[in-house]
Design goal:
By secondary structure, the chain is of the alpha+beta class. Helix content is 39%, strand content 27%. It is elongated and about 105 Å long.
């Protein structure tokens, strides 16, 4: 593994500089591949740093970066990871021998430390957070470049799903579920209600599911009078009432082929519209 003893550090954050990141990362990758062991990258983006800079100025922004980098180094401890300043408010931590799960636990510890260490500036307290991304070799990629790129994609996933947390590249789908899960659930419920209404509570199909008995016969239907029975379910049936008791009504249906007799409970009926007897001037339809 490449030694960093002679490498330069950023004067503001006391982290190694971006220029030395890829050579070091390549050496970590080569050793990990040779000895079949993992390494991980934690990429960090300080939340809302640009807004802070725009509001309070770059000098106060520098104080934010000093505070954050000191918290980062404290959380890493001795030889746990090597921090690099990757950009204005971005940091990369290389963790030789660490899995994605171990690196994620470290990121959670860093987030907790950031919340517990109050950032004071000119007598005011500021809350800070970061969006993190974790990728690990060989789980998430086979080259150093792939691992760095996938840590960056994990950071983007953290930002898109609300910031203030860390995402493992292999578990980005959890963020998608967090963002779109409620919407998908509402859509599924709405679709289920629509289908239930369509197939169980509308039209004659809904009515047929609520009858107690059906007797079908094949002889051709001979209409004497066509009554319309409107059901509480929202459906209706056309036919001729052939028998009626205190609790039930027998209806001979008008079907496309032949005729059928149906017994309905009166408790299921909304009202009945009596038809007219067919005449030469008013034939049955």
């Amino acid at each position: 593994m490449m030694a960093l003893d002679g490498s330069r550090k950023d004067f503001l954050t006391n982290c190694f500089m971006k220029e030395d990141l890829m050579p070091f990362l390549q050496s970590v990758w080569a050793e990990s591949k040779a000895y079949t062991k993992p390494f991980s990258i934690l990429l960090i983006d300080v939340d809302h740093f640009k807004s802070f800079n725009d509001t309070y100025g770059h000098l106060d922004g520098d104080e934010v970066l000093k505070y954050f980098s000191s918290s980062l180094r404290l959380s890493l401890g001795e030889q746990a990871g090597i921090p690099f300043r990757f950009g204005g408010d971005e940091f990369v931590v290389v963790l030789p021998g660490k899995t994605a799960a171990e690196t994620y636990a470290l990121a959670c510890r860093l987030a907790k430390n950031i919340k517990s260490r109050h950032f004071l500036l000119k007598g005011r307290q500021f809350k800070m957070s970061f969006s993190g991304g974790v990728a690990s070799y060989p789980q998430d990629g086979q080259t150093a470049e792939e691992i760095l790129d996938r840590a960056d994609k994990a950071v983007y996933s953290s930002k898109r799903s609300g910031r203030g947390h860390t995402t493992q590249y292999s578990k980005r789908w959890l963020n998608t579920l967090k963002v779109f899960g409620p919407v998908v659930l509402i859509v599924l419920i709405a679709a289920g209600l629509f289908l239930l209404n369509k197939y169980y509570y509308k039209g004659q199909l809904g009515a047929l599911r609520r009858i107690n008995a059906v007797q079908i016969s094949i002889p051709r239907f001979e209409a004497k009078s066509l009554d319309t029975v409107y059901l509480k379910s929202g459906g209706y049936l056309k036919g001729t009432i052939t028998n009626e008791t205190a609790d039930e009504l027998e209806l001979r249906l008008k079907l496309d082929r032949g005729q059928g007799t149906m017994v309905l409970k009166k408790s299921d009926i909304k009202y009945v519209e009596k038809g007219q007897k067919p005449t030469p001037d008013n034939p049955a339809k």
